[in-house]
Design the sequence.
């Protein structure tokens, strides 16, 4: 993959140009968020009572915690209470299939709640505070990631040149923080009370540790994510295909004890019954517009199931307890595209060296998210690190291929502007028309980001007649000028 490792800036002018490019990106993010988040908000967002981040913060600190959003916590608490009352019986049959409460997580996801219960912290306000801390952690992780990527660009450069522009030290980190807090999937996860804020934070730090060649820590984090979101189990296969034993060891060191603990608490049978839930989700999926996958797109295009949330009791309104009706075409397409995305994420650049695997890592994260039967808006938060890496790669090759790089930077900025804002309300008007395909704008933005990442990684360039650009080197050892080891 193109890398900052062999990109050279030969003059202070180039150094200043790189710095002001980062500042321009920061101003772009602020401008886009101000334009769509404040100026045009009345035209984009209906007054349907949706909870905003500000509403949640008010409820946490000065309001009534009983009104806090419970998108993930309510079904998890329902399942936990049922298990405590009924021992090792089938919680999924009772809660998911009978009560129609969408407890769609493996039983290992309840282990954090068991810990909070043991500490007498099982309270709505505590959940919200933890989610808030996870958002802050995500912003801090992106700040560190952006700083490391910037230092990777500095590898091999004389220290006097690096320090000529003080802005270089704070601009990338500031951009990382601002981009995180302006990224709609991140803020939406917090606003609706989604446990996905934990997974977004874990993926950001996993990307940071993988960049630093701390693959054991990256594996530990994604192993923890697997206990909540089973799609992340594909990262074990991904690591084994690359003989990345440290990553695989980290993953296993969390998942095996976690599964053992859940089995000891709830029994092996209930844990295995989760496969019935996964099968049901794969066959049905969701038609609600927030499901940004092939499954959701086809359900809406075929008008198979409710598209919009309504405050009325109309049968056409999406209800959180309902799934889309079974449709054989949607099921087949979901299965085929899921396999294709999964295989691409697993196999792309499987034989690359350690430094090149950063691109493979990010592509896998994107594919495992896009290829799922159900991926809500908050699930797209894992795509934020890919924006950061692509930004620095494109800035690094700006001199060698200016026209194409400017085009790709424009596409990258467009993808970020679209993905980081809520355009669903005006697009709701298209729900009953063939143009409801536009409601999948987040899905298409994810495909654009994936295409840019794969296309940029596959394009070889030799700036100044020198060596091809690749991700090996400074990216894995930021600021040192030393290449990362090529062996796992």
Sequence:
């Amino acid at each position: 993959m193109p890398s900052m490792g062999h990109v050279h800036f030969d003059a202070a002018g180039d150094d200043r140009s790189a710095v002001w490019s980062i500042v321009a990106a920061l101003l772009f993010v602020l401008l886009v968020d101000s334009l769509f988040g404040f100026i045009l908000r009345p035209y984009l967002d209906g007054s349907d009572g949706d909870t905003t981040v500000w509403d949640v913060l008010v409820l946490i600190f000065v309001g009534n915690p009983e009104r806090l959003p419970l998108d993930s916590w309510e079904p998890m608490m329902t399942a936990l209470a049922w298990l405590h009352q009924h021992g090792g019986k089938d919680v999924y049959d009772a809660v998911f299939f009978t009560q129609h409460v969408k407890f769609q997580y493996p039983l290992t996801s309840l282990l954090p709640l068991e810990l909070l219960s043991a500490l007498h912290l099982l309270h709505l306000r505590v959940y919200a505070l933890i989610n808030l801390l996870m958002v802050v952690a995500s912003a801090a992780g992106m700040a560190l990631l952006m700083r490391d990527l910037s230092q990777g660009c500095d590898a091999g450069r004389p220290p006097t040149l690096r320090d000529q522009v003080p802005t270089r030290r704070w601009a990338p980190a500031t951009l990382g923080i601002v981009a995180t807090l302006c990224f709609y999937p991140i803020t939406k996860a917090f606003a609706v009370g989604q446990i996905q804020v934990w997974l977004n934070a874990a993926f950001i730090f996993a990307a940071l540790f993988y960049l630093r060649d701390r693959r054991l820590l990256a594996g530990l984090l994604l192993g923890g994510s697997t206990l909540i979101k089973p799609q992340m189990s594909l990262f074990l296969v991904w690591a084994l295909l690359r003989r990345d034993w440290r990553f695989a060891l980290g993953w296993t060191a969390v998942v095996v004890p976690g599964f053992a603990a859940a089995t000891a608490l709830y029994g092996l049978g209930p844990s295995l019954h989760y496969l019935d839930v996964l099968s049901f989700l794969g066959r049905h999926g969701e038609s609600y517009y927030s499901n940004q996958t092939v499954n959701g797109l086809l359900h809406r295009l075929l008008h198979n199931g409710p598209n919009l949330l309504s405050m009325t009791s109309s049968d056409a309104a999406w209800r959180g307890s309902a799934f889309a009706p079974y449709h054989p075409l949607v099921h087949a397409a979901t299965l085929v595209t899921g396999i294709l995305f999964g295989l691409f994420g697993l196999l792309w650049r499987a034989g690359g060296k350690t430094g090149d695997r950063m691109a493979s890592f990010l592509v896998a994260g994107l594919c495992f998210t896009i290829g799922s039967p159900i991926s809500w808006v908050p699930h797209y938060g894992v795509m934020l690190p890919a924006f950061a890496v692509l930004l620095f790669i494109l800035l690094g090759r700006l001199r060698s291929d200016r026209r194409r790089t400017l085009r790709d930077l424009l596409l990258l900025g467009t993808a970020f502007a679209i993905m980081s804002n809520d355009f669903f309300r005006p697009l709701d008007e298209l729900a009953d028309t063939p143009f409801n395909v536009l409601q999948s704008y987040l899905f298409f933005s994810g495909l654009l980001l994936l295409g840019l990442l794969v296309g940029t990684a596959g394009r070889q360039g030799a700036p100044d007649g020198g060596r091809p650009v690749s991700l090996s080197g400074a990216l894995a050892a930021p600021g040192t000028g030393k290449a990362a080891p090529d062996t796992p």
Summary: Residues 97 and 277 are 9 Å apart (CA to CA). The chain has one domain: 4-465.
